[in-house]
Amino acid sequence: MRKSIATVSVSGTLTEKLEAIAAAGFDGVEIFESDLLVCPLPPEEIRARAADLGLTIDLYQPFRDFESVPDDVLTRNLRRAEHKFRLMERLGADLLLVCSNVSPGAIGDDDLAAGQLRLLAERAAEHGIRIAYEALAWGRHVNEYLHAWRLVRLAGHPGLGVCLDSFHILSRGSDPIGIEAIPGEKIFFLQLADAPRLAMDVLQWSRHHRCFPGQGTFDVAGVAEHALNAGYAGPLSLEVFNDHFRQADARRTARDGMRSLIALESTLEHGGPARPIVPTGFAFAELAGTGELGGMLTALGFARTGRHPTKPVELWEQGGARLLLNATGGEPALIAIGLDSPDPAGAVEHAESLLSPVLPRRRGPGEARLDAIAAPDGTQIFFCDDSWLSDFAPDGRAGGEITGIDHVALAQPRHYFDEAELFYRTVLGLSPQPGLELPDPYGLLRSKAMSSPGGGVRMVVNIAQVGAEGVPWQHVALACRDVLAVARRLRAEHPGLLLPIPGNYYDDLEARHDADPELRRLGVLYDRDEDGGEFLHLYTVTVGRVFFELVQRIGGYDGYGAVNAPIRLAVRHSGGG
Ligand SMILES: O=C(O)c1ccc(O)c(O)c1
Ligand SMILES: [Mg+2]
């Protein structure tokens, strides 16, 4: 299907927007009036610019508060419309979006509204222009898509149809099945936007919190499917008003929008979400850094068990946890994650089909082939079978208290939080948990955990939502058989390695739970879920950008100890790490 996007969805000047939209591979655009008004180019040149970029101008919008008005206002509105028709001729656009009247002065009379819309369609037809009428969720009298359709049917003009917008339909809780009762040729345009569930005024919700399909909680694909079933043959067009997108890099946002449409299209084709090749576990986590990190790993009980034959990379192991230390330089940081994949080449191909950058790799003769892509924060993600390990010729000394990597937490760059969910869901096939907001002493952190079925791969992305200096930290959480035993040893042998936990925390914990007094003695954090599952965890101090978490899950606990995260955020500011 043809894919379009409204210029309002990405940042920049109109020409920057068009370039970014074309670079992402869209076929067409909806030109938003506010973008055109501030553009120094005359409409003819905008038209030529779009054409040069291979973009069609599918729609011009919005035309507001036209219908349901007294006669004198109608005269003014028709005059206003004539000006827009002439502009559209210069622009080469032949579809005008008219949104339902929001004015308190609008008259609630369907016959009057339909008659006036018919008049508008007649005038438009003289310019070869058609009208797509859209019910805004906050329209004064017309705020349901089926009401807009009743008016269009009543008006009975071939140049008048409806514009369906998934946000307006789903934000009001309307049942989209009614779309199938609209003849396909009367659906002139289909706009797609998702949104998170928020309890707020619908206009504010629409203007600030829309996101691309798959980034929120709406069944956007369902709306598209009903429109296709009805016989709609126009473009799938993204129309997103979002405060972050307005500030973000236009090319990146446009590419993310395209990813959302590719994923949506394959949902429509396959009758379910595209089937990524889901990774089954962590093969390794790779960290830049040597001395200080090596010291910390030794303290944690890791042994250096192998070396790469040609690269300055060491393998460190403990139980099933494998870490690579890469001496290539730079401050200590998590630079790559290896995921066990049943089909590494297929996984890369799938990621590429969703516009993820595939990373070129150099490899020596006889070395294992490793396929990698870039995660949204730039971390390299490798898809691995067993062969990579043999490059390091491990010596088999891998015993210890740690059993594997439980999860990895990455910092998402500012303004790109929505991108992360779509990436991990569609590219890696992870399922998101509800997002969380966590207080930081100097701001607020947004956090979202995503996991594979069975929990073999768990990823957490964090982003500074308000204030603070951003959240550059990343961490690797290591699963322990007995975290209290680990804590006992580390607190005794390596004072200063673990974050100290305030006594106030334990006073509160003991008020909530019958907590083992040893938790307080050892500075171990604790959480319990509704089913009695328990989570014991503690943190190391930070080295460069990274720290480690030691965790133990008991009784099917499936969370991440989020209630305790603010303790870590605060303690690192009080000199703890
Ligand atoms: O927020 C608005 O006013 C607005 C304008 C045009 C649209 O297509 C829309 O969905 C919303
Ligand atoms: Mg709309």
UniProtKB/TrEMBL annotation:
<dbReference type="GO" id="GO:0051213">
    <property type="term" value="F:dioxygenase activity"/>
</dbReference>
<feature type="binding site">
    <location>
        <position position="475"/>
    </location>
    <ligand>
        <name>Mg(2+)</name>
    </ligand>
</feature>
<keyword id="KW-0479">Metal-binding</keyword>
<dbReference type="InterPro" id="IPR013022">
    <property type="entry name" value="Xyl_isomerase-like_TIM-brl"/>
</dbReference>
<keyword id="KW-0456">Lyase</keyword>
<feature type="binding site">
    <location>
        <position position="134"/>
    </location>
    <ligand>
        <name>a divalent metal cation</name>
    </ligand>
</feature>
<dbReference type="GO" id="GO:0046872">
    <property type="term" value="F:metal ion binding"/>
</dbReference>
<keyword id="KW-0560">Oxidoreductase</keyword>
<dbReference type="InterPro" id="IPR029068">
    <property type="entry name" value="Glyas_Bleomycin-R_OHBP_Dase"/>
</dbReference>
<protein>
    <recommendedName>
        <fullName>3-dehydroshikimate dehydratase</fullName>
        <ecNumber>4.2.1.118</ecNumber>
    </recommendedName>
</protein>
<dbReference type="InterPro" id="IPR050312">
    <property type="entry name" value="IolE/XylAMocC-like"/>
</dbReference>
<feature type="binding site">
    <location>
        <position position="165"/>
    </location>
    <ligand>
        <name>a divalent metal cation</name>
    </ligand>
</feature>
<feature type="binding site">
    <location>
        <position position="549"/>
    </location>
    <ligand>
        <name>Mg(2+)</name>
    </ligand>
</feature>
<feature type="binding site">
    <location>
        <position position="239"/>
    </location>
    <ligand>
        <name>a divalent metal cation</name>
    </ligand>
</feature>
<comment type="pathway">
    <text>Aromatic compound metabolism; 3,4-dihydroxybenzoate biosynthesis.</text>
</comment>
<feature type="binding site">
    <location>
        <position position="407"/>
    </location>
    <ligand>
        <name>Mg(2+)</name>
    </ligand>
</feature>
<dbReference type="InterPro" id="IPR043700">
    <property type="entry name" value="DSD"/>
</dbReference>
<comment type="function">
    <text>Catalyzes the conversion of 3-dehydroshikimate to protocatechuate (3,4-dihydroxybenzoate), a common intermediate of quinate and shikimate degradation pathways.</text>
</comment>
<keyword id="KW-0670">Pyruvate</keyword>
<comment type="similarity">
    <text>Belongs to the bacterial two-domain DSD family.</text>
</comment>
<feature type="domain" description="Xylose isomerase-like TIM barrel">
    <location>
        <begin position="18"/>
        <end position="261"/>
    </location>
</feature>
<dbReference type="InterPro" id="IPR036237">
    <property type="entry name" value="Xyl_isomerase-like_sf"/>
</dbReference>
<keyword id="KW-0223">Dioxygenase</keyword>
<feature type="binding site">
    <location>
        <position position="191"/>
    </location>
    <ligand>
        <name>a divalent metal cation</name>
    </ligand>
</feature>
<dbReference type="Pfam" id="PF01261">
    <property type="entry name" value="AP_endonuc_2"/>
</dbReference>
<dbReference type="GO" id="GO:0046565">
    <property type="term" value="F:3-dehydroshikimate dehydratase activity"/>
</dbReference>
<dbReference type="GO" id="GO:0046279">
    <property type="term" value="P:3,4-dihydroxybenzoate biosynthetic process"/>
</dbReference>
